[in-house]
Amino acid sequence: MPERETWTSRIGFIFAAVGSAVGLGNIWSFPFQTGANGGAAFLVVYLLAVLLIGFPTMLGEFVIGRESKRNPVGAFAELGHGNWSAAGGLGVVTTVVTLAFYSVVGGWVLSYIVGSATGAYFGDAGAFFGSVSAGQTAVLTHAAFMAITIGVVAAGIEEGIERATKFMIPAIIVLLVALGIWGSTLDGAAAGYEYYLSPDFGVLASNFASIVPSAVGQAFFTLSLGFSVMVVYASYLGSDDSLPADGGAIVVINTLVALLAGFVVFPLLFSIGAEPGTGGVGAAFVGLASAFGEIPGGEIIGVLFFVVLLFAALSSSISLLETPTSYIVETYDFDRRRVAIALGAGIFAFGVPTALNTNTLGWYNDVVFNLLLPIVVLLFAIFVGWVNADDSYAEVGRGSSLGDTFSTVWLWWVRIVIPVAVIFTLVLGVQDLLIKGGVLDAAIILG
Which of 232, 157, 167, 155 is nearest to 7 (CA)? Predict the structure, then answer.
């Protein structure tokens, strides 16, 4: 086995993990998920899900990765439980399926950067989306986005992933803050803030069965949980770092980015009288593009917004490709560059049907969001909390100053609360899926 790379610094790991978490789900899907599920009522449930389910689950994936120093499949054998390797394998499959359609949407973002700069969508935003979202243009931009992703992963941990995310994450935050300040000057800012920040708990009570699985699923997606990504990234981490401290920093920054996106999107939508959260991912692109076409300086603001989206999309796609790459490189001792190129090409081909027909997004979404992610999270929780409990307890406390009390509470939380919450969410999600006949809003998967 070749010598494994490691992060050159703690901040490198945090930025890379934040990069994986901060994806289209934070900046694009989150505001529209919020809009589609009652505004601030959804926001409250989402924040609770991140704190009570997302953070403890993330620490569980960290524990598996750092203790084993292996990829998601090899980690379980390294820990003495090779019969659980299928759980890691399912996580790897989930990353491949997700990246196949994620890259297509990343390609849309490339088209919108050009469209903003040239004003190509200003005359008819709907027609522009139709021209770039499916067909030859979508295939080409899908290829371009995947090529960028391959290039970063092929360069390795230090020279590729760490260097790229150290640039992209600060850039995302700075640009979002600037756009948020600009959004506060729009005529619709006050109404947008009220919708975003004033919860109507009556909406929550009447839509509980649909809001809860959406919020929990959004938490999984925006924190990259269930993909085995955090297992991989933690496997490159030193044993003296505090997992709770690093995990807390990642959760806070990730949530901050999602909240900042809302402070940009809702004032913009309300300024043109658009209905938040309606019509899915296509209408989301069309709605904001229409707004950029109506406001002064729309070309510049549009370019900035879609550049933020591009950085977010790339920081996540990099982690999605790194997961299967790490597995093949470590298992078969293949060259990293060749593996990244071959895998990227295969995933590109798998995503071509979505680039040709956006209706397949719904199928991808159903499989990943309602089934694969909750199942992987559930399996990891059972493994960490019950099968590998003693080692998990010791590992989560290693390098941390929080003491035994935190480790004990965390372990029992993972043992009891996480499985119950995930099973509950899984049942609601499948029930909602069956009621809707298998067609869900594709916007929720862009995390």
Answer: 157
Question: Measured between alpha carbons, how far is 429 from 59 in angstroms, rounded to an integer?
Answer: 24
Say how many C-beta atoms besides its own lie within 10 A of residue 420's C-beta: 11
CB 120 within 8 A of CB 128: yes
- C-alpha span between 151 and 287 (Å, rounded): 32
**Residues 48-86: tens digit of each pLDDT:** 999 999 999 999 999 999 999 999 999 999 999 999 999
Q: How many CA atoms lie within 13 A of 330 on its CB side?
A: 21
- Give the separation between CA 439 and CA 18, rounded to whole angstroms: 30
The H-assigned helical ranges of 7-154 are 10-21, 24, 30-36, 40-49, 55-68, 72-78, 85-118, 125-133, 136-154
Q: Which of 65, 127, 446, 426 is nearest to 258 (CA)?
A: 446
SS3 334: coil
Q: The tokens 């790229």 sit on which residue? A: 164
Q: Is the pTM of this model over 0.85?
A: yes
Which residues, at least 6 apart from 296, have a Cβ–Cβ distance to it below 8 Å?
none
Closest CA to 70 of 90, 54, 85: 85
**Distance between CA atoms of residues 49 and 46, nearest Å:** 5
DSSP 4: P
Phi-psi region of 285 (alpha: psi -120 to 50; beta: other; left: phi over 0): alpha
First to last CA, the chain: 33
3-state secondary structure of 119: coil
Q: Is 382 helix (H, G, I), strand (E, B) or coil?
A: helix
418, 423, 429, 433: CA torsion to nearest 10: 150
pLDDT (tens digit, 9 = 90+) per residue, 215-274? 887 788 788 888 999 999 999 998 888 999 999 999 999 999 888 988 988 888 888 877
Residues in contact with 273: Cβ distance below 8 Å, sequence separation at least 6, in sequence order = 188
- Do 27 and 272 form a contact (C-beta atoms < 8 A)? no
The identity of residue 258, as a single letter, is: A
- How distant, in Å, are the alpha carbons of 40, 259, 281, 296, 368 from that of 269? 16, 16, 14, 15, 29
- 437 CB neighbour count, 10 Å cutoff: 7
